[in-house]
Automatic annotation (TrEMBL):
Keywords: Hydrolase. It comes from Streptomyces castrisilvae. The keyword Hydrolase applies. The keyword Hydrolase applies. Pfam families: Abhydrolase_6. GO terms for molecular function: hydrolase activity. This is Alpha/beta hydrolase. SUPFAM superfamilies: alpha/beta-Hydrolases. Signal peptide: none annotated. It comes from the Bacteria.
Amino acid sequence: MDILLIGGLWLDGSAWDDVVPELTRLGHRPVPLTLPGQGDGAVSATLDDQLAAVLAAVDAAPGKPLVVGHSAASTLAWMAGDARPEKVAKVALIGGFPAADGRAYADFFAIEGGVMPFPGWGPFEGPDAADLDQPARDRFAAAAVSVPEAVARGVVRLTDERRFDIPVVVVCPEFTPAQAKEWIAAGEIPELARATRVEYVDLDSGHWPMATRPGELARVLSEAANA
Protein backbone atom coordinates (compact mmCIF):
# COMPACT_ATOMS: atom_id res chain seq x y z
CA MET A 1 0.00 0.00 0.00
CA ASP A 2 1.09 3.57 -0.62
CA ILE A 3 1.65 5.35 2.70
CA LEU A 4 1.69 9.13 2.39
CA LEU A 5 3.74 10.74 5.16
CA ILE A 6 3.07 14.35 6.18
CA GLY A 7 5.33 15.86 8.82
CA GLY A 8 4.15 18.41 11.35
CA LEU A 9 5.27 22.00 11.80
CA TRP A 10 8.83 22.87 10.72
CA LEU A 11 9.34 19.44 9.10
CA ASP A 12 9.77 18.56 5.45
CA GLY A 13 9.84 15.14 3.83
CA SER A 14 13.31 14.36 5.17
CA ALA A 15 11.80 13.95 8.65
CA TRP A 16 10.80 10.43 7.57
CA ASP A 17 14.25 9.33 6.35
CA ASP A 18 14.63 6.69 9.07
CA VAL A 19 11.05 5.43 8.70
CA VAL A 20 11.00 4.99 4.92
CA PRO A 21 13.48 2.08 4.66
CA GLU A 22 11.61 0.05 7.27
CA LEU A 23 8.25 0.66 5.62
CA THR A 24 9.76 -0.41 2.31
CA ARG A 25 11.16 -3.55 3.91
CA LEU A 26 7.71 -4.30 5.28
CA GLY A 27 6.29 -4.26 1.77
CA HIS A 28 4.83 -0.79 1.44
CA ARG A 29 5.50 2.20 -0.80
CA PRO A 30 6.19 5.13 1.53
CA VAL A 31 5.81 8.58 0.01
CA PRO A 32 7.25 11.32 2.26
CA LEU A 33 5.81 14.67 1.23
CA THR A 34 7.61 17.99 1.09
CA LEU A 35 4.86 20.55 0.70
CA PRO A 36 4.81 24.09 -0.71
CA GLY A 37 6.46 26.44 1.74
CA GLN A 38 8.68 23.74 3.22
CA GLY A 39 12.10 24.89 2.15
CA ASP A 40 11.31 25.98 -1.41
CA GLY A 41 11.36 29.67 -0.56
CA ALA A 42 7.60 29.97 -1.10
CA VAL A 43 6.81 31.95 2.05
CA SER A 44 3.54 32.93 0.37
CA ALA A 45 2.38 29.29 0.35
CA THR A 46 -1.09 28.78 1.78
CA LEU A 47 -2.89 25.96 3.53
CA ASP A 48 -4.82 25.39 0.29
CA ASP A 49 -1.51 24.99 -1.54
CA GLN A 50 -0.39 22.34 0.91
CA LEU A 51 -3.72 20.52 0.74
CA ALA A 52 -3.53 20.54 -3.06
CA ALA A 53 -0.10 18.89 -2.89
CA VAL A 54 -1.41 16.19 -0.56
CA LEU A 55 -4.41 15.58 -2.81
CA ALA A 56 -2.14 15.29 -5.83
CA ALA A 57 -0.27 12.52 -4.01
CA VAL A 58 -3.55 10.83 -3.08
CA ASP A 59 -4.73 10.99 -6.69
CA ALA A 60 -1.39 9.65 -7.97
CA ALA A 61 -1.53 6.56 -5.76
CA PRO A 62 -2.43 3.42 -7.74
CA GLY A 63 -4.82 2.29 -5.02
CA LYS A 64 -6.29 3.76 -1.86
CA PRO A 65 -3.43 5.09 0.29
CA LEU A 66 -2.98 5.37 4.03
CA VAL A 67 -2.58 9.09 4.73
CA VAL A 68 -0.40 9.80 7.76
CA GLY A 69 -0.37 13.17 9.49
CA HIS A 70 2.01 14.04 12.31
CA SER A 71 1.16 16.64 14.94
CA ALA A 72 -0.49 19.69 13.32
CA ALA A 73 -0.50 17.85 9.99
CA SER A 74 -3.07 15.48 11.48
CA THR A 75 -5.48 18.17 10.35
CA LEU A 76 -4.02 18.16 6.85
CA ALA A 77 -4.40 14.37 6.63
CA TRP A 78 -8.00 14.67 7.82
CA MET A 79 -8.69 17.40 5.26
CA ALA A 80 -7.41 15.04 2.57
CA GLY A 81 -9.89 12.42 3.74
CA ASP A 82 -12.65 15.01 3.65
CA ALA A 83 -11.74 15.97 0.09
CA ARG A 84 -11.26 12.38 -1.12
CA PRO A 85 -13.41 10.13 1.10
CA GLU A 86 -13.76 7.56 -1.68
CA LYS A 87 -10.01 7.47 -2.34
CA VAL A 88 -8.39 7.43 1.13
CA ALA A 89 -8.23 3.96 2.72
CA LYS A 90 -7.37 5.11 6.23
CA VAL A 91 -5.97 8.08 8.13
CA ALA A 92 -3.27 7.74 10.77
CA LEU A 93 -2.73 10.59 13.23
CA ILE A 94 0.58 10.71 15.10
CA GLY A 95 0.65 12.88 18.21
CA GLY A 96 -2.09 15.16 16.95
CA PHE A 97 -5.79 15.60 16.26
CA PRO A 98 -7.77 17.22 13.47
CA ALA A 99 -8.97 20.77 13.95
CA ALA A 100 -12.65 21.46 13.40
CA ASP A 101 -14.14 23.28 10.43
CA GLY A 102 -13.61 27.02 10.67
CA ARG A 103 -10.65 26.80 13.03
CA ALA A 104 -7.13 28.01 12.28
CA TYR A 105 -4.79 25.27 11.10
CA ALA A 106 -1.88 25.86 13.47
CA ASP A 107 -1.80 29.41 14.83
CA PHE A 108 0.22 28.40 17.87
CA PHE A 109 3.36 30.56 17.93
CA ALA A 110 4.52 34.05 17.00
CA ILE A 111 4.69 35.13 13.36
CA GLU A 112 7.86 36.95 12.37
CA GLY A 113 8.35 38.37 8.90
CA GLY A 114 5.49 36.41 7.41
CA VAL A 115 6.51 33.04 8.85
CA MET A 116 6.25 31.10 12.09
CA PRO A 117 9.80 30.06 13.04
CA PHE A 118 10.63 27.18 15.34
CA PRO A 119 10.24 28.74 18.82
CA GLY A 120 13.00 26.77 20.51
CA TRP A 121 12.60 23.94 22.98
CA GLY A 122 10.99 25.85 25.84
CA PRO A 123 7.38 25.11 24.81
CA PHE A 124 8.18 21.42 24.42
CA GLU A 125 9.96 20.63 27.66
CA GLY A 126 8.47 17.62 29.35
CA PRO A 127 7.00 14.52 27.66
CA ASP A 128 7.16 16.04 24.15
CA ALA A 129 10.95 16.21 24.00
CA ALA A 130 12.02 13.94 26.86
CA ASP A 131 13.52 11.34 24.52
CA LEU A 132 15.49 13.83 22.40
CA ASP A 133 19.11 14.22 23.50
CA GLN A 134 20.97 17.46 22.86
CA PRO A 135 22.50 16.41 19.52
CA ALA A 136 19.04 15.40 18.29
CA ARG A 137 17.60 18.71 19.43
CA ASP A 138 20.39 20.57 17.67
CA ARG A 139 19.75 18.65 14.43
CA PHE A 140 16.02 19.34 14.61
CA ALA A 141 16.51 23.07 15.23
CA ALA A 142 19.07 23.37 12.43
CA ALA A 143 16.75 21.65 9.94
CA ALA A 144 13.53 23.36 11.04
CA VAL A 145 11.70 25.12 8.22
CA SER A 146 9.68 28.18 9.20
CA VAL A 147 5.96 27.80 8.47
CA PRO A 148 4.39 30.37 6.12
CA GLU A 149 1.87 32.57 7.89
CA ALA A 150 -0.88 31.67 5.41
CA VAL A 151 -0.38 28.01 6.29
CA ALA A 152 -0.30 28.44 10.06
CA ARG A 153 -3.27 30.83 10.07
CA GLY A 154 -5.13 29.17 7.23
CA VAL A 155 -8.76 28.31 7.98
CA VAL A 156 -9.71 24.63 8.00
CA ARG A 157 -12.63 23.80 5.72
CA LEU A 158 -14.40 20.45 6.01
CA THR A 159 -17.47 19.78 3.88
CA ASP A 160 -18.07 16.05 3.30
CA GLU A 161 -19.53 14.05 6.17
CA ARG A 162 -18.33 10.84 4.54
CA ARG A 163 -15.02 11.63 6.23
CA PHE A 164 -16.44 10.28 9.46
CA ASP A 165 -16.59 6.78 7.96
CA ILE A 166 -12.89 6.69 7.05
CA PRO A 167 -11.03 4.40 9.48
CA VAL A 168 -8.73 6.35 11.80
CA VAL A 169 -5.70 5.17 13.76
CA VAL A 170 -4.65 7.49 16.57
CA VAL A 171 -0.98 6.88 17.38
CA CYS A 172 -0.33 8.04 20.94
CA PRO A 173 3.33 8.93 21.61
CA GLU A 174 3.67 11.46 24.45
CA PHE A 175 0.13 10.79 25.67
CA THR A 176 -1.77 7.56 26.26
CA PRO A 177 -4.79 6.08 24.47
CA ALA A 178 -6.74 6.58 27.70
CA GLN A 179 -5.94 10.30 27.66
CA ALA A 180 -6.91 10.60 24.00
CA LYS A 181 -10.25 8.90 24.69
CA GLU A 182 -10.86 11.25 27.64
CA TRP A 183 -10.21 14.32 25.48
CA ILE A 184 -12.59 13.07 22.80
CA ALA A 185 -15.28 12.19 25.36
CA ALA A 186 -14.92 15.66 26.88
CA GLY A 187 -15.70 17.27 23.52
CA GLU A 188 -12.20 18.62 22.92
CA ILE A 189 -11.84 16.81 19.58
CA PRO A 190 -15.25 16.98 17.92
CA GLU A 191 -14.08 15.54 14.60
CA LEU A 192 -13.00 12.26 16.18
CA ALA A 193 -16.08 12.17 18.40
CA ARG A 194 -18.09 11.70 15.21
CA ALA A 195 -15.71 9.26 13.53
CA THR A 196 -17.24 5.79 13.32
CA ARG A 197 -14.06 3.69 13.30
CA VAL A 198 -11.25 4.85 15.57
CA GLU A 199 -8.38 2.69 16.86
CA TYR A 200 -5.69 3.72 19.32
CA VAL A 201 -2.07 2.58 19.39
CA ASP A 202 0.29 3.35 22.26
CA LEU A 203 3.85 4.27 21.27
CA ASP A 204 6.36 4.91 24.03
CA SER A 205 8.13 8.01 22.74
CA GLY A 206 8.05 11.75 22.72
CA HIS A 207 6.33 13.92 20.15
CA TRP A 208 8.70 13.06 17.29
CA PRO A 209 8.81 9.24 17.07
CA MET A 210 10.04 9.38 13.48
CA ALA A 211 13.32 10.61 14.97
CA THR A 212 13.49 8.58 18.18
CA ARG A 213 11.51 5.39 17.43
CA PRO A 214 11.51 5.11 13.63
CA GLY A 215 11.45 1.31 13.51
CA GLU A 216 8.58 1.04 15.97
CA LEU A 217 6.66 3.78 14.20
CA ALA A 218 7.13 2.06 10.85
CA ARG A 219 5.76 -1.17 12.27
CA VAL A 220 2.74 0.63 13.72
CA LEU A 221 2.03 2.25 10.35
CA SER A 222 2.55 -1.04 8.53
CA GLU A 223 0.05 -2.77 10.79
CA ALA A 224 -2.40 0.06 10.21
CA ALA A 225 -2.00 -0.29 6.47
CA ASN A 226 -2.44 -4.06 6.59
CA ALA A 227 -5.50 -4.08 8.85
